[in-house]
């Protein structure tokens, strides 16, 4: 595959009912003029999905009407509901990357947010891959990584899976780096030091500021992201208890490797 270059992004694009304004250069766009619900028409849903695949995370302001049921109904327009799963506290991650099939999309609604602080930051894992020099892309294409939730499982049985470091997106065909806080080791390496060094090398590419967008939450805000093309983390600069967000996840697929194999669960 050739190195992918995104189309130049125009400041505001309008397609039917959906108006999309990029928030940052490589990831994130705000959508105006859409009232989220389970009642959106098929054309609007298709436009939102297209914008989501392109911008990786979409932000909606002023969705005060939305409650948990309405949020779930909207999420069902994107796919089958999936169990919401715990996140590593404050660390960069892709949701539930330790699962055989990590969620495809996530919908996060501000219920109670601090006046300032507690932002969420997302990173574009496709841009991170595309930015790699060819020698590192070729190495990344071959590597597999063990993901585990042992740090968040709270004494229960840890869930584990082996996934390709580079996953081919099922809808766009883009290649994305799959790492984050649940990534434990590179499969086949005999020393922990080698494993850590390689994971750090690629993870640092993901979280470069140029690949990120930071969102300052206000009441009524909703963020929707493609968990197959992003990582995210919260910024821990707010008082305990001052921030409540409601998450709804949508099922995804077992990550597809460049060579056609898929991620597998481990016992
Ligand atoms: Fe998360």
TrEMBL record:
Gene3D superfamilies referenced in this protein's UniProt entry, alphabetically: Clavaminate synthase-like (3.60.130.10)
Family, per entry: Belongs to the TfdA dioxygenase family.
Cofactor(s) this protein requires: Fe(2+)
Keywords recorded for this protein, A-Z: Dioxygenase, Iron, Metal-binding, Oxidoreductase
Coiled coil region boundaries: none
InterPro entries: AtsK-like, TauD-like_sf, TauD/TfdA-like
Molecular functions per Gene Ontology: dioxygenase activity
Domain TauD/TfdA-like positions: 20-80, 87-248
UniProt key word Methyltransferase: no
Protein name, UniProt field: TauD/TfdA family dioxygenase
């Amino acid at each position: 595959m050739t190195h992918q270059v995104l189309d130049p992004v125009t400041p505001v694009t309008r397609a039917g009912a959906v108006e999309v304004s990029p928030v940052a250069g490589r990831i994130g766009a705000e959508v105006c003029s859409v009232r989220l619900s389970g009642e959106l028409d098929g054309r609007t849903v298709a436009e939102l999905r297209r914008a989501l695949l392109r911008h990786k995370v979409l932000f909606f302001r002023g969705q005060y009407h939305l409650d948990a049921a309405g949020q779930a109904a909207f999420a069902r327009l994107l796919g089958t509901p999936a169990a919401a799963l715990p996140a590593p506290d404050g660390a960069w991650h892709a949701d539930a990357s330790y699962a055989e099939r990590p969620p495809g999309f996530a919908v996060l609604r501000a219920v109670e947010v601090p006046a300032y602080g507690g932002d969420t930051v997302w990173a574009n894992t496709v841009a991170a891959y595309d930015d790699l020099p060819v020698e590192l892309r070729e190495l990344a294409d071959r590597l597999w990584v063990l993901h585990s939730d042992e740090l968040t499982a709270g004494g229960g049985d840890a869930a584990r899976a082996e996934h390709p470091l580079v996953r081919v997106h099922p809808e766009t065909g883009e290649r994305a780096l799959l790492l984050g806080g649940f990534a434990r080791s590179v499969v086949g390496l005999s020393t922990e030091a080698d494993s850590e060094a390689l994971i750090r090398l690629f993870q640092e590419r993901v979280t470069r500021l140029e690949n990120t967008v930071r969102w300052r939450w206000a009441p009524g805000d909703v963020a929707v992201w493609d968990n197959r093309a992003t990582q995210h983390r919260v910024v821990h600069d707010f008082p305990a208890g001052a921030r409540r967000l409601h998450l709804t996840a949508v099922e995804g697929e077992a990550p597809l490797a460049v060579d056609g194999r898929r991620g597998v669960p481990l016992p």
